[in-house]
Design brief:
Alpha/beta knot, four-stranded parallel beta sheet, alpha/beta, single chain, two-stranded parallel sheet, globular
């Protein structure tokens, strides 16, 4: 992510919606002003400098799902969330690279023709997961 407020907001949402971990690849900031509930004290954060380090680390039983506008994407309304999933969200300015998308088991697209704020996009995906699992 390119913005610390977006990251803090997404951290708070992930905590609220029951995420187990947050992985951060290539951090571009230092503080979390959007984390108004101190979720960062309750949710494990694992940081990586580059995608390859992250990819080598993730459990083999995890499903990697990219959230991106792509010709290969599945509309979110049709997507069934796997049990053990890692959602990959790119920064608003560069998104997920083609190399990263190739590593994803699925690519999901939110409604609309252009990119949303990363905290909003992540929050929508997590909310969709909760609604569909009820």
């Amino acid at each position: 992510m390119k913005n610390e407020t977006n990251y803090g907001t997404l951290f708070r949402t992930a905590h609220l919606f029951g995420a187990d971990f947050i992985f951060l690849i290539g951090k571009r900031f230092k503080r979390l002003p959007g984390d108004t509930t101190n979720a960062s004290k309750h949710l494990t954060l694992i940081e990586f400098e580059i995608f390859e380090q992250f990819y080598d680390f993730i459990p083999h039983w995890s499903t990697l799902v990219g959230i991106e506008i792509s010709e290969k994407s599945i509309p979110l309304k049709e997507f069934q969330h796997p049990k053990n999933v890692i959602y990959l969200l790119g920064a608003e300015d560069i998104g997920l690279s083609p190399e990263i998308l190739e590593k994803c088991d699925s690519i999901v697209q939110l409604p609309g023709a252009y990119s949303l704020n990363v905290a909003v996009a992540g929050s929508i995906v997590l909310y969709d997961r909760i609604i569909k699992s009820s």
